[in-house]
Amino acid sequence: MVMDPDNLSVVLHSLKDLRLEQRPIPEPGPNDVLLRMHSVGICGSDVHYWQHGRIGDFVVTKPMVLGHEASGTVVKVGSAVKNLQIGDRVAIEPGVPRETDEFFKNGRYNLSPTIFFCATPPDDGNLSRYYIHSANFCYKLPANVTFEEGALIEPLSVGIHACRRAGVTLGSIVLICGAGPIGLVSLLVAKAMGASKVVITDLSQERLSMAKELGADFAIAITKGNSPQELAKNVADMLGAPPQITIECTGVESSIQTAIYATQSGGVVVLVGLGAEMATIPLVNAAVREVDIRGVFRYCNTWPMAIAMLASGKVNVKPLVTHRFPLEQALQAFETTKQGLGIKVMLKCDKNDQKP
Questions:
Q1: Considering the domain 159-295, what is its CATH architecture?
Q2: Confidence label for 4 from pLDDT (cuts 50, 70 and 90)
Q3: Residue 339 CB-density burial (10 A; 0-12 exposed, 13-18 middle, 19+ buried)
Q4: pTM greater than 0.90
Q5: CATH of 8-140+317-348, one of 1.20.140.10, 1.10.10.10, 3.40.640.10, 3.90.180.10
Q6: Structural contact between residues 60 and 53, judged by C-beta atoms closer than 8 angstroms
Q7: Phi/psi of residue 65, nearest 5 degrees
Q8: CB of 73 closer than 8 Å to CB of 43
């Protein structure tokens, strides 16, 4: 296959220094595939690295290609690859274990300290025309699943992992704090897993309206004057009882407090949103009521379930994409995301195919 040498890439050089530049087309190793990228979503973490140069201990110290919510087409396969062939449309799982450590062996490879992860320093992401990735972490898309849906499997996976960690099941009553992209996918997954009632909170009326369209039973607009205890009471009054499960997607200290106060005794709070390293929370309140607090770090073993959910029509993520830009307009796309306009901004990397 003759390939266009154009490998335009979105590269973060340092704090607030985002550039479009050409990079060589990489050659796949024995277990890799070369992908012609199609759709890549912009994540809050991409914007955070651009605006702050770091997330926690992950610091941008050299130029890094951004992007990790992605799908594309296989254009070259490594010599040892058996599961994929040229022409396959795939969704990319961005976290690839580098070694067979204890985390890998017990199925929680997302916790491996040496994992490769797209667009997490020092690892390059895939916001480019061409990109190589481990074939074992590329998943074939059925014909009825679009490239954009394939790219949205990454945020959808956070929702799947959060709902699994929370134990969402038939009849669960769930509170979701935050109606951004992760709150909305958590809503979609909770409903697909059988939650009977879901209430969602946010500051933005626009996002709450989207949540209602996606299946939220109740939506609560937060105002600055609400105390966590008052919000918890509002949630219980609206549901008729406290929720058994709360999925906290903002990382905001007051929201974490609300999550704990709101959750039924014996219930579960899952912390998905990442905020400040230290937070003041009513830990004793949780302890004496046996409320379990569980963390979430990315996801693992979620792509097959996500693909099945999308292919079957059980979950519809298409409404989440509110803006689309060609790769050449990446800087404008990042500005749009930074300003909080819409829900999910999608970059189209294949200049010959700009379709969803």
A1: 3-Layer(aba) Sandwich (3.40)
A2: confident
A3: exposed
A4: yes
A5: 3.90.180.10
A6: yes
A7: -70, 130
A8: no
